[in-house]
Structure formats: C-alpha cells, structure tokens
Amino acid sequence: MTSSPQRHSTGDLLGHQLHGPTDPIRDVGWDGTHARKGFFTDTSICIGCKACEVACKEWNRNPRDGDLEITGWSYDNSQSLGASTWRHVAFVEQDREAIEAARESGRRLVSLGMPTVRDGGAGSEGGGATPSPDTPLPPTSPPDTPEFRWLMASDVCKHCTHAGCLDVCPTGALMRTEFGTVVVQDDVCNGCGTCVAGCPFGVVERRSDGTAAPTTRRGERKGEQPAVPKEGVAQKCTLCYDRLRDEETPACAKTCPTTSIRFGDHDELVTSARARVAELHAKGMTEARLYGANELDGVGGTGSVFLLLDEPEVYGLPPDPRVPTADLGVMFDRAGIAALGMIGAAVAAFVGARR
Amino acid sequence: MANSDCIVLQGGNMAEAHPVGFQWVAEAKARGATVIHIDPRFTRTSAVADRHIPIRAGSDIVLLGALINHVITHDLWFHEYVIAYTNAATIVTEDFADTDDLDGLFSGFDPESGTYDSDTWEYAQAGGGEVEDAGGEKGEQSSTEGDHGPGDQLGSGGAPLENAQVERDETLQHPRTVFQLLRRHYSRYTPAMVQEMCGIDAETFAALAETITSSSGRDRTTMWGYATGWTQHTSGAQFIRAAAVLQLLLGNVGRPGGGIMALRGHASIQGSTDIPTLFNLLPGYLPMPVAGLHDTLADYLDVVSGPGQKGFWGNADAYTVSLLKAYFGEHASAENDWCFDHLPRLTGPHGTYQTMMEMLDGGVEGYFVVGQNPAVGSANSRAQRLALAQLKWLVVRDLSLIETATWWKDSPEVASGELRTEDIETEVFFLPAATHVEKAGSFTQTQRLLQWRHKALDAPGDCQSELDFYYHLGVRIRELLAGSADERDRPLLEMTWDYALDEHGDPEPESVLKEINGYEVVPASGEGGDRTAGEGPGEAGDEGGGSAGSEAREGVGRALSGYAELAADGSTACGCWIYSGVYAEETNQAARRTPHGGDGPAQAKWGWAWPADRRILYNRASADPDGRPWSERKKWVWWDEEAGRWTGSDVPDFPAELHPHHRPEPGTGGVDGLAGDDPFVMQSDGKGWLYAPKGLVDGPFPTHYEAAESPVRNALYTQQQNPTRMLYPRGYNLDAPSAGEAGVEVYPYVFTTYRLTEHHTAGGMSRWLPYLSELQPEMFCEVSPALAAERGLTHNDWATIVSPRAVIEARVMVTDRMRPLRVDGREVHQVGLPYHWGVGEEAIVTGDAANDLLGVSLDANTQIQESKVASCDVRPGRRPRGAAAEELVADYNRRAGVTPQTGNQRLTDPEQEGRG
Amino acid sequence: MSPISPLEWPVLRQLRGRDALGRGPAVTSATTRELTSRNARADRVVQSVCPYCAVGCGQRVYVTDERVTQIEGDPDSPISRGRLCPKGSASEQLVNAPGRQTQVLYRAPRSTRWQPLERDTAIDMIARRFVQSRRRTWQDTDEQGRPLRRTMGIASLGGATLDNEENYLIKKLFTAAGAIQIENQARI
C-alpha cells in the first residue's frame, strides 16, 4: 500500500466502486498482492451429496439448522442459505416439458449472442462463445433428451463485485478482503441487520438461536448441540477467509467429490466456466448457461460463478440481482462535498473534545 | 475405473452410497466414457449418468441373460479371449440337464432337502468319465459351499476340482461345450422377455446392448459396478455370476477399466471377510471345518485343495498349517495334526439369522454386538429385538447408545406393551468404543487395499478399542481357566496371546499385524514349556507377560515376504495367507503413504493390496495368449521376452517367469499345473468360469427366479422362486403370497430398501451427529404420483406401510423419480424405503425402521437376506399405536390367508402356475 | 495488548488510505488482521482413513491440546484425492459428538435404568459370564459321535467397522473358545 493518499474528485474517488466492471480489491485500497478468489460451481456434475454443506459447518463451527423435519422439497431439507447454512444444495425435479423449456430458453440466450448489456435476465448469460449469425444452433431436443431429470446445485454467497451488504453496513463489520471476498467481522458487527436487506440474493442473515424456525426440540435430546455461538450477529460465507490466509482451499471446494465446486482465481474460473458452457452447448445442451459471470449485471458480476442448466429462478436465484446502492454513486457525487464537510467537522469536534 | 470406456452401474447407487468413489466415474465420463445406471429408482446416480434405465427390482438376471444371448447370437463376443481364457471350450458331462429341460430346475435337485447334488454338473473327463470333485460327501455342501458367496469371490475363486484333465473342443461346436450350453440356456432370455419381466422396452434394450458391446474388445473395456442391490436377493450370488459371465464373454475381466466392482458399505467390510468375523470361514477364505466332512486335517485338506487342482489353492496345506501355527504356536505339531482338533466344527449354516432364531428359541445365552445395530439394521428387525430379550447377557460396544443397547426400555415393543421392561431378564453391558482416530490399525477397502490408520490421540473416558477389549477379555478368560485340566479348555490356554504391549499394557496393533502377515517360527529354546495363562506370556502387565514396545515375541522370527514362503511343515506361522507380505521386511506396508501412490498407473506406493500387492486381479488376461498387450491403449501386464518375465504397470497376478506358451505335464497340480495362458490363477482349472461346475449351490448357470415374495409370475419357468433359498417358516417371519397364490392382492406393491448419502446404515454413526441428522431428518417413503393417486397418499403427509411381518409409518414423498413399470401385462408399483431410522430415545433423529417390514429369506450360497424386494401395502395416515398395530398386521394376514407355510413351498405347483 | 492509538481508529485509517468508503483495510479489526487457519496452529496432523464406507478415503486429523479440531480429506490419497462425502466430512463430529457415550453402563436383569460400572469390573463380569455360558452350553460331539468341540451359547455380531487386527483377535479368541456363531455386516 502506498503511504500517500491519492487525491481525487469524489466522482473519481468512487470510480466504479458502486457499479459496473471494476477491480474490487484495488477499489478498497488493498495493494493487489492477491488475485481475486472465487468459486465456480458447475451444477452439471453435482451429485447432491451435500458434503459441501457439512464441510462448511465443520470448518466454521456453524450450528445445526432447521427443526429436524422433512420439508418435502425433494432431498433438500436445509431450504436456503442462512446464518448457519452457508452452502445449500437445491434439488429440482423436472419432467420432459421443463427440460425442453430450459433447453429452449438457453438456446434463445445463445442466439442473442449472449447478453453483454444488462436488459432483463442479465444475471445469466449464454456462455463464452458469441456465435456468429450463421453458426448453426444445436437442436432443441438432442436425441438423448431424457424423460426426467433431477437438478442439483450448491448455492453459496456470491461475493459480489458490488456487494450490497458491504455498501450498506454502517459499522465497518462487513469488509472486502485482500482476496476480493466479502466477510463479516463478528467482533465488529452490532447486529443491526442493515446488510440483510442490502443483499439482493438473500444470503446474509442474523443468527438467532441456531434454528431457522421456532424450535420445539432444542435441548430435548442428548446429542443436541450446545449453546449456539455468535448469536445475534450477521453471518454468511467467508470463502474460508482464515483458510485462505494459510493458502488452504475453502472447505467446501476441497471436499467436493466431483469437483462441482472449484476454487481459484476468479478470472481463470470464469474462463474455464465459459469453456465448459461451450462444451455442453456443443453436445446440444443449450440449457447450460452461466450465472454471475457478466460484469455488467446489477452487481458487477459475482465472485462465485455458477453453471446452471435452467433459468436462475428454478434454483431459487434472482434472475436480475441488483445491488441497492447501484445508483448511489451519482447521489454521492452530489452530496460528496457536504459529506466530506461533515466528516471534517466531526473529526474537528472530536479532536477538540479530547483536548 | 477411470480407465473404462463404459461404466454400467446396476444394483447400486454409487453417487449416493460412495460419492468419493464416484469421482472416478465422473472423471471417466468427462473423458468420454458412457455411464449407464440401471435401477428401480431414479437416484442421484441416475441424475448424473448418461442414461437411467428403470428396472423392476429383482429381475436383473433376465436383463443380463438377454445381454448374454445378444452377445452370442450376434457374434459380438471376444473370440480369442473367450477361447483361451474361459471354460467355453470345456465339455460338460452328458448327465447334465438344464432348466429348459426341467422347467426351472437343474439336474440333481432333491426336493426334500432343497439342495442340489452337483455330480451331474461336472466336466467330462478327458478319455471318458467325469471330473470328480474332491470331497465326496455331497450332503453337507449346503453349508460348506456357502463359503463361495459374492463377498468371498475375490478371495476364493472357484471350488476345487480333482484335477483339470478336462475335455475341450476349441471349435466350440460340440453340443456339450460350455459355450453351446450357455447359448441354449439363455436362448429364451430375449428382448421380449426383458420387456415382460423387467419393464424395459426393446428399443432401450437395444441401445444398452449396443453401448456395452461397442465399448468392449481389444481397445475398449466396460466395467460393471454393483452393490447390495444385487447381493440382497435370494439369488444374489447368481446376479453377480451373470454379470461375470457377460464380462468374460466381452473380454472385460483382468483388464484395466474392466471387471466387476463390488461397492461395499463399511470401512472394513472387505477386511472382515478376508479376516472373517464370519461363521463359515477362517482367515484367507479357508473354510471352517464341518463335522462329518472335515473330521481330520487330511479330510479337510483333501476337500480344500484337491491334489491335482491347478493354481494357488493347491498350497492350501501350507496356508492351513501356518494358520494353526499362528493360532496355537508351539503346541501345534505334526504329531497332533497342528492342533486341527482345537477347531470347533460346523453342522450347517450358523449365520446371524439362524443365530437370531436360536436366540428366540432360548439357545443363546450371551451375545456380543460390536459396531453393528441389528435392532434397526437387520432384516425382520422386530424379531431381532424380541430375540435380544431372550438373552441372559448382552454386550454392546459402540460410540453411542444405539437402539441395540436401549431396546429394553425404548423399543416399539416396550411402547406397545408386548415387552415389559420389568420382565426382561437380559443383563446389558454397554462399553463405549474408541473412534477410528483413537486407535491404530488397518482397514481393507473395497478394492482389497489395506490402509493403516495412525492413532491421533487417546480415547476419552472408558472408551476403548476392540483390540484392547478383546485382548483383555482373552487374558481374563485364560486367567479364569488357568490350571484347568479340562480338554475343552486347551485351545484357549494354548492359543498364542502374547502380543507386544504398549506402555498402558494394551496390545500393539503392529504386533498383531505381523502375526497376520506371517513369520518364521523360531524353535523354542530349551524345553519349550506350556505357554498357558498364568505362567507364560499372556498375562497383561506382568513382567512375564507381553513385552513392552517392540521387543520380539517368543518363537516369532523374521516377517515373511509373501505367501509363497509359507510351508506346511510348521516352519512358518501366518494368520491370513492372502495378507502375507503386508509386513514384509518388518515394515508396515499398509502404512505406505507416498503422495498419490507414487508414479505409475498402479499407484502402488500407497497402502498394500492383497494378494501380493496386486491392484488388478487376474491381470495376466490383460495380455493376449502370446503375452502381448491386447492393444496399446489397454496395456497393463505383458510378457517381456528378453527378460523372460511378466512385466508392466502392476504386479503380475501370475507366476512371474511362466512363459505364455508353457504347457504343464498333464496331471500336474498346484501352481506348477498352470499353463502360460491360465490367467485365472485362483480357479481350479485356471480359466474364467462361464459355467460353474461347482461352487454354487443353486446352479451352474445364473437363472432367473422371482423373489421369495413377488406379485409377478416367473414367465421363464414354472418354478417361481429359487428352489434352494433358505426358508424359515415361523410365526414372526411370515411371507406374503406370490403371483398365482390366493391373497396376493392384499400385498400388491413391491418395496425396496436402500440407503441415502446423508446417513450410514442403521444410523449408529450418523443419527447422533447434528450435521448429518439435519440433512435427512425423517423417515420417508418414495412413491410415484400414480401410486399416490391410487392409494390417496398426500405429499409430505404420512403413510402407513404394512407387510406380513410388521407395520411402520413414514412421511410421503411423491416423486416422478419413482415410476410404475409395465410388467407381465400390468402396472407394477414400487415403494422406496430408506432404512436408516430406528425407534429409540437417544438419537437426534428417530423414526420407524424399514427393516421391521422385511422377512428372512436367504440366498443359500451366501446366507444373505432378501432386502431389495418384498411385498407390502401402503395406506394414507399414521400407523396405529399400541396393540392396535399388531392387530392391523394380523388382520392383513387373515385377509391374505397367510400362514407360516405361505410362500414356503420349494417347488412351484404347475397347476398354480396356470391360475396366475 | 498495544495501547490504543487514535491512529488506528477506522475512520482515520479510512481517510488516510485508499479505502475512502471504509470497506477494506481501513475497517479491519485486530482479530481480522491476525486471522489464520486453525489447521496451521494444530499441534499435530495425523494420517488416517475414513471410518464410514469401503472406499477408504484418506483423512488428515488435526489435533490441538489433545482434542481433534478438524478432520478433512488427505490430498495425497490416490483413492480420494483429498475429497470426502458428507459423512466423511462429519468425522470430527463423530469423534466429538455431543451424544457420544464415554462411560461404561450396566443394566441389571429387570431393571428400568442404567447404572455406571468400572470398566475393569465390566470386563471381569463379562469374562465370568463367558466362561459359565460356555460350560453350560458345550457340545463335545454330535449324535453320531463326531467331534464338535463348540458352544452354541455365545454369539457375536459386528466387524465390518473394525480393524483387521481387531477382527483377527475376535475370530481367534472365539474359535479357540469354540464359539462359532460369529457374523458381521458382510451378510447384511
């Protein structure tokens, strides 16, 4: 880090810190020693084993969740990401009609030449190769279209380029790490919950008593967990910040039996994700598409990139995530002088008071 | 596995049961291999396979038989491989009659005993006559040949033959060649039959046949993977045989990316078969002696290794004597037949289900249950719990208070009032066990690889390893018997029990491993006195007792380098001959941990694989008869003419310097009897068996029979069920009527039991863990939308499932993953039931046990129960409580007219067939 | 503890550095700055093998202060390459399970309760019962006078979760005792 603060107008100062393509690591002032880290979750090879969920809880000492009742959502009994569940595997059962619809919607994305500008449905994109107009499109129904399929996808915090949770946190508990990831500092968080509303993906949650629903069974049995740690503070995936510090792979990616979850440098992951989509398209699987790889989307692209086999909504993901502070830059520009003035006044008052 | 071009997973759910093993399937698939999943249910394996083929549970032999038929009819078999390496050309005695001649029976069936006399199945003897089996006493074979079940096949190979002077016709034209018999046997296993019995249409069958045949041959290999979806049937061993026959025809055995892979469920289930905690085996697949058959050591060795038999079983005398030396040390001498008479004798099957019935009859006083949970995990678990109440004392060793430890206060039978805690006489000892990180030792995984675990820390509280517990129990028992003059106590007092001890006075696991490996016997110095408890080594903690640290044990010399060193003269001791070499050079080879196993495709520097560190068995077959690789792409082991030895990527599973063109003198037995093109070194004729003249009790060819309970008629033969299946007509073990019998409509649905990724077997290692419990918190049943509509079941609500044995309840999961099959002209509905839950007060998650519903009908080869297919009814709502539950089952059985005799006729009445 | 310096106040770091909006280095707490992997702090790492199924995945066991702090895949294993399934991933919880029983318990005939027992006492009691039951149920010969030399009064179940060395001792002890009814999960 250079020692002399650089001088900018507020507009320059903010640069693309709140929307559009940018380098989130340098934006916040890290020196860029580390490349931006992220996940690439290829759902086409997920076997739904949930090892990621367990490995995550083991490493992060997150308490058991839920109320120990079957949900009826296929094999999904953890339901969603939350304060104690930082990896969540969704299970979606589809018949032939749904498969064909997915294939068709993916085909349309391909024929759009992939959305390079955000105009509806831009959370997803058609893949790396922009086909020239005369590239023949794969058939909607390759001969192997099955009667039925069972989609499985491991969801996780997106570690957005423009992270709503981070931008709205009033305490500095949320921060961008030197790896470009977004973490909550438990010891700073005061549990105000602003970040919960700030996340367009619904990832962040305050930890209550360790169960998502009112619990009737807590303490009923021996073997129930002891006191829940970190009650009341906001919790979410840290991309195993502590492990990264020691050059260890995040727990979920390390354990994933089929490499459905891959960890690495964000840019390289996006490149290989695009290649994987192209490979599936070549097999006629036009349903394959990327989620979070478009840096022009409402969150500037995400650190966690996904290969999906249907529309994001099918997996419970928002189709067009948009950081609530996306337009803040313009407003901030106008209010910039006033804001700086207020900070200056506050410091002056404070220093004055100490005297 | 990653070397395969096509992987067929059938009778198993690999992605769910073995997710990490599945990475190799995923990798093969990424490299272009085709993955096909054949299973009644659409599972997480199906989800990532190229294709899922739904099949009616229990009809697998029809499908495999039809594939065999297809391969023969369309001349798609691997000619050079089949003629050289299998018994296709061997001629069978003219007395043999097949199931087509006898409407579902082979020749030699005795309806009284329900067993076959396999005399008529034998090979014709060159120059007339037939190849005698070595044993003679046919009547006893139902128990002894149970040794050669699926769990045992890797080790045992085929059954012994007197010698291998067989008549062959390499043109395969002789009508009694195995090949022609095979062709005829499977000629009625057609695509139409597959449609009728399996519910698989002709188009799907054709696609499957095309995929596997185009992925087999010189340059390509197909692998078959199976699990308990095959073994847990009354014809389970034959399911696996059928796949073996197909794989041999396609030339997929002994070659990289080929073979048949068993996917097993427990960390050391292979090890506990190799070094068996099984009634019928001694270590290394030596049979336990049977009264009347093995009365003397000479009798025993005659049966185990006929003198003219080819291959490595020819040295069974060395393996047996070395085992007895390991067990009884200097007390075992040539004069006393190496203490052969110290061994107890079997008189029939004494498996876990027979033991349960003996318990119910009051014949068993004490029971040790060690890391297993039969009150939830065994078939007819209700009867298991009732049996436990008949014991005088019960010892349960586990990590948590599993249902088998607490049934006396919280079982369903206590809740219903059928058992009263205050009346139960059983004393129960619960001893907490050490976990895998709190003790050192070896597991043998499913590909026969031994891996040593180092101890990470001491066990907490009273927790203790089994090694420590049984060692100290043995010491106490010997103390109690010390000085006894009773003949019956001599084996206990004379057994070697003087392992090296650590600083806590507990045995060093490596000291036991060395005994398993085998060592040179050092003759006793001096007079060689009695090493009995109380005076010799063996007393814990005493100065005269086991030595601390690694000090050598008395009589224990150099560790052997492998089983080739074993001798029958008492100069070697070896606790398990197939493991010999694991401690070669006094080094724990199972603890080898070169990252990634070192260079080379066999990854041989990680752990140690039996036998003799071979990673692929029978790998001589990976080269052609002249010793050349079948193709560059599939090269593995080949003959190096210059060096004059076999070489390649693996340890050759063959005598290292035996030239491919070598032909032994006729009549030579043992290893010397092997020809240079006899790759199947554990088979008594060195060939892969398309036809099993011995070794299986229910026929030389796999043949389709319906399950013990089935609403579907056997369309192939009048004979409905396997005639040799073990029957247990008991009031607590009733069977539902099958197709053609009155009352079959009362239990109209087929249910199948299975496990989920998130849990482990009966739940002892998963339902006490919060992180696993939350992922699958409740017992459920999987049904198709059509069945739900038919029975008024509501998704996520409750259902009650009734079988002739019990009634349970489960949450309903209505899913398209279950689909009715069109079989025999009608819809057959299947109900899926995971079996992880049990009723009790201790686990984090509990629920009714699916195994309560199952009856005990066993495969006569393996004594394994049929738990993948049985009959039931399903109705909406929760089950009745208390005595009303029993009444509901009784009412069903009344309506179905069920008695203990139902379903227990060995031979199907041909008239009944007509009514079906 | 270093004395609190006003210069470390986040708002000053924010203005001083390039993190004008206070979302990066400026807002790190001391805990965050010192964060490391607990694996890196472990007293020792021991190679082991997963206890669940028969695939035989390699594990690394991290121990700190004589307590297992983490169990994860061993990347060196050619079988598993560092990966584990959900059960294998839960191995730490198996060892440190809140419901794990660490004390010997005894239930007397007709009793409705467990009572604690010394481990040595328990083994003594079991040895006595073993010897008594064996005597009571001994069979020397069958009805034809052929040797049996066995007891049908003592049985054992389990072994597929145990080590080879343990199964070896069980089979050896029971065979020498004449107790033939030994079974395990291979037939389940």
TrEMBL record, chain A:
[4Fe-4S] cluster 3 binds at C157, C160, C165, C199. Keywords: 4Fe-4S, Iron, Iron-sulfur, Membrane, Metal-binding, Repeat, Transmembrane, Transmembrane helix. The keyword Glycosyltransferase does not apply. Residues 133-145 have a biased composition (Pro residues). [4Fe-4S] cluster 1 binds at C46, C49, C52, C256. Pfam families: Fer4_11 (PF13247). Its cofactor is [4Fe-4S] cluster. It is found in: Cell envelope. Residues 37-66, 148-179, 180-209 form the 4Fe-4S ferredoxin-type domain. [4Fe-4S] cluster 4 binds at C169, C189, C192, C195. GO terms for biological process: cellular respiration; formate oxidation. The keyword Hydrolase does not apply. One of its GO terms (molecular function) is metal ion binding. Residues 120-129 have a biased composition (Gly residues). InterPro entries: 4Fe4S_Fe-S-bd (IPR017896), 4Fe4S_Fe_S_CS (IPR017900), FDH_Electron_Transfer_Unit (IPR051555), Formate_DH_Fe-S_su (IPR014603). [4Fe-4S] cluster 2 binds at C56, C237, C240, C252. GO terms for cellular component: cell envelope. Its main location: other. Gene3D superfamilies: 3.30.70.20. The chain crosses the membrane at residues 335-353. PANTHER family: FORMATE DEHYDROGENASE, NITRATE-INDUCIBLE, IRON-SULFUR SUBUNIT (PTHR43545:SF6). This is Formate dehydrogenase iron-sulfur subunit.
